[in-house]
Structure formats: C-alpha cells, structure tokens
Specification:
The protein has 402 residues and is of the alpha/beta class. The chain has 2 domains: 3-27 and 291-399, Aspartate Aminotransferase, domain 1; 33-287, 3-Layer(aba) Sandwich (Aspartate Aminotransferase, domain 2). The protein has 15 helices and 15 strands. It is globular, with a radius of gyration of 22 Å. It binds pyridoxal-5'-phosphate (PLP). Pyridoxal-5'-phosphate binds next to helix 4. The site of pyridoxal-5'-phosphate has 13 residues, from helix 4.
C-alpha cells in the first residue's frame, strides 16, 4: 500500500505541525476526491434529486444512482436497490428494530459486545412490545465456538443481530458461519459492519447475511451517511422508520401507497452531497485495493504490540495475536483513567486517540471497568507513527501509572 501517495490526498497530512490521528474507528479522515465530489454537488448542480425534472435535478439523480451502484458493488451486492441510505449505522439498525414485524415474546440474540446502536433499540422493544433478548459471548464466537449461539437458537429466535468486528478490541466473528447456523434454525441475521466494511473486502452476497449496517464516515466518507443493505424480500417486510414525500407513489386524504425499495425508506430531501461523497469514498478505497488494507493494519498492530510489550503497567484488551485485532489497539495503564491517558498523549505528543466505554457500556460496567484508551488506525497511518505513539505510552507508564 502506498501510504505516502494516500497522504498527499489527505488535507490533515499537509499541515506542518499536524497531530497524529489515531481515532479512525470513530471517524476516518477524508481524502480530497471525497471532499471534491461533495463540493462539485454544491458548486455545479446544487438541486433537488429524484423529484424535479429539470437538467440540474437530472444530474443529481444520475450521481445518486452512480453512488448507490458503487456502494453496492463495493460490498458484493448485485442489486443496488437493496442499498438504503440513512444518516448513520444507528439509524440503519433502528430502522430494522422498529420496522421489522416482531411479535410479542419473539427473541433476538446479540453478543455481549454490541455498540449501543445495536443494544438500546432491543432494550426499548422489550419494554414496548415484550421482545425477548438473549446475549452470547462475543469472544467465544471470535474463537470459533458457536455452541453458546446454538444453545440460544435452540430456544427459538427471530433475528440474530451481531457486531461483525467489535469497536472495543477490533476482533471479528466468523459471520458467514454464524449466518449458516442461524439459517439452519430458521432465523435471520443482521450484521453491524461499522468496523468491518472500512477494513476488509466484503462479499455480502457470498456471506448470505440478511441485513447489514454500516456508516460511511468510518471509511473515508462524509459524516451523516449510513447504509443499510438488506435482501429484497427482507426489506420488503420492514416498515419505514420515516415516511413522507419521496417515499410514496400516491396518497389520498386517507391512504398512502409506498414506493418500492429503496425509496420507501428514503423519505424527505436526502443528504445528496453526502451520498455522492460516499460514492467517491468507495471508489477511492477500490483504487487503494481493499485486499491490502487488512495486511497493512495488521503490520501496524504488530509493530505497536511489539513496541509496547514488556510495559508492566499496561494491560491490553482483546486477543494476544495482533492479527486478530484489526486496526485497533485498546489498553489501560494501571492507576490511570482512560480519559487522562487520552488527554496526556494529546498534550505531550499530539496523539489523537479515543477513551471511555466506546458506547459499549454493558461490556465495561459488567466487568467493573471505567473503559479503555483506544488507538485505531487506517490506510494513512504508518509504522513510524506507531513507534512514536508507543514511546509516548511508555513515557506515561513510567511517569504517571502505578
Ligand atoms: C461497531 C459499531 N457499531 C455502531 C456504531 C454506530 O455508528 P454511528 O454512530 O455511525 O451510527 C459504531 C460507531 O462507533 C460502531 O463502532
């Protein structure tokens, strides 16, 4: 991977006294072609797509169709109409939770490492319609032990909704095997791909997953664009979260006929610039070569792990093997709060990392942990940054930790 060439496209890397950005699991940096694609919308055809029929509107519609096709191709989906644009992965998963025809007493199975966006909707549905929820250990699935999931499936389930790669330690479950097992038990699978789609080549058709949600802002795309993929027959069963203009073919004073997918889920004027920028983001990633991304991140994770090995005050989260932690290195320093770690590494060396519970509260609170510090990297980071960051963490360990 040509990191230097990528950096030439990233505005932050042109700043002289730039910080070192290690917070890509939260939101990635954006290359110029993505920003330019959005500007092109605002400068050249700043109109309303898919409604008006004038020439600028037609141009918007053509760009939106292209973006949908490019996003579909990027994840191995043949039918672009099965790609729904939302405002983030949280909305994508809420759309499913709130619109799926669940009945009282039906069960949903998740892991114990779900982001709040795949946790809170189920808590609320338990209160509202008596939906039951079972939780299986993520780490067992990650190690290839599907028994706990099988036991829960045997008790009955309508949907299994699981994070594919968790945002705490970066490890990944074998989703294709999970899907096979779940289908054998007559249930459906939704994958939370927020931390997978940016970092791995994906073939959702081959994986046979029924629903899959992710956010574009973690993969070089603009803020405020999420995606929901669903099999056509599954999306057709789901009620839209928001309804109104653009999502209906005709209405009368007492009826409304919804349009087919994807329009039925995309009511109201859309984030045109964001969707067009999302198309540019996946085209950029395709040019970089998604096959090269995991190896690049594993290399960085190996370097960081090696540089910080032997630091007694440091406890790392996740599997021992750095190759199983993707682009995430999460840790605690004995006697230090994660937020203090994050603030001090920024103060002393300009390292921008995330700290806290990373919206996975039950995982931490059930273990009596305050959270952790998390460095996360992407295609623009390099080994030198890992070494410098490791030196800063060593300094903290020696001077501030117990
Ligand atoms: C695994 C995972 N799921 C869901 C989300 C929520 O994404 P968004 O805030 O874009 O809706 C995140 C964001 O950090 C995440 O990492």
């Amino acid at each position: 991977m040509d990191v230097e060439a990528i950096r030439k496209d990233i505005p932050l890397y042109q700043q002289e006294a730039r910080p070192t950005y290690l917070d890509s699991a939260c939101q990635s940096l954006r290359p110029r072609p993505v920003v330019e694609a959005m500007n092109e919308y605002y400068y050249d055809f700043p109109a309303c797509g898919e409604r008006s029929v004038h020439r600028l509107a037609t141009e918007v519609s053509i760009h939106l169709d292209e973006a949908r096709e490019d996003v579909a191709t990027f994840v191995g989906v043949l039918d672009p109409e099965c790609i729904i644009f939302t405002k983030n992965a949280t909305e994508s998963m809420n759309l499913v939770a709130k619109g799926f025809p669940f009945r009282k007493g039906e069960r949903v199975i998740t892991t114990d490492m779900e982001h709040n966006s795949n946790h809170v909707p189920w808590v609320m549905l338990r209160e509202r319609i008596g939906l039951e929820r079972a939780v299986v250990p993520f780490s067992e699935l990650e190690e290839g032990n599907l028994e706990p999931l099988k036991e829960e499936l045997e008790k009955g389930a309508r949907l299994v909704s699981m994070v594919h790669t968790n945002n705490v330690d970066g490890s990944t479950i074998p989703l294709k095997e999970v899907v096979e097992l779940v289908h054998d038990h007559g249930a459906l699978v939704m994958g939370d791909g927020c931390q997978t789609a940016p970092h791995n080549p994906l073939d959702l058709r081959d994986m046979d997953v029924d629903l899959y949600a992710w956010s574009m802002h973690k993969m070089l795309g603009p803020s405020g664009v999420g995606v929901l993929y669903g099999k056509r027959e599954v999306l057709e069963q789901i009620e839209p979260l928001v309804t109104g203009g653009g999502a209906v073919s005709i209405t009368s004073y007492d009826s409304a006929t919804l349009l087919p997918i994807p329009e039925k889920f995309e009511a109201g004027l859309q984030n045109y610039a964001g969707i067009i920028g999302s198309g540019a983001a996946v085209r950029y990633l395709r040019k970089v070569g998604m096959e090269e991304v995991p190896e690049h991140e594993h290399r960085l994770n190996r370097v960081l792990t090696e540089e910080l090995s032997g630091v007694e005050q440091l406890s790392r989260l996740g599997p021992e093997d750095p190759d199983r932690r993707g682009g995430i290195f999460s840790f605690n320093l004995k006697g230090m709060l994660p937020h203090d770690v994050a603030m001090i590494v920024d103060e002393i060396g300009g390292f921008l990392i995330r700290s806290g519970m990373h919206c996975v509260h039950p995982y931490f609170t059930s273990r009596g942990l305050e959270g952790c510090a998390r460095a996360s990297f992407y295609i623009y980071n390099d080994e030198e940054e890992m070494r410098k960051f490791a030196a800063a963490v060593r300094y903290l360990a020696e001077n501030f930790a117990d």
